[in-house]
Amino acid sequence: xxxxPLIGISTYLEAEAHWGTWQLEAALLPAGYPRLxxxxxxxxxxxxxxxxxxxxxxxxxxxxxxxxxxxxxxxxRYGAERDPRTGPPALARDAWELAxxxxxxxxxxPLLGICRxxxxxxxxxxxxxxxxIDGHAETPGVFGHHKVKPVPGTLYASAVPEETxxxxxxxxxxxxLGTGLTISAWAEDGTPEAIELPSADWVLGVQWHPxxxxxxxxxxxxxxxxxxxxxxxx
Length: 234
Prior knowledge:
The chain is an alpha/beta fold.
């Protein structure tokens, strides 16, 4: 592989979106995601929901994968009944993104889960979610900030060794961890804020939204891992 690594980013699928004079169904992504990939040295490619059987072929064309934030994961995916505070399902995204995660883990493609993406990573490996927590999404539509403390010796700590303030907006969190996962950062209230898979070359989930901040280190670490992975394959 030569040049900048290709990083795929999963997208929203909205029944109705508005731009200009148009109001149509749309696959979309907040611009912060591709901009963060680009600023960190990667090429960004949007991955709208597709049939899960196409996930392996999609991931085979990528050097790295980002599972973006978005709606709550359907509770049936982790064997739970729906809490009244859990949002409406995004069934096409759940199926597609879980298939992407499985394909990336199988192929050894570096993987970063952001917010919902971290939660899906946990679910993909057999973990469960707490369907509602307080204090991490104070005002609808407005990102808050809180401190995150890394666990020394983890993949996350190798990228961000000190406690930092991060942009956050979520009301769910990892509960029971999936097979092989470990917690690599905590919030001050004891909420798991990052998880990773030590048995893999580079698999990390963060509960906050790095695309809404100025710290490039997490995404830069993914881009560097994707560059190294691509060099091994080529």
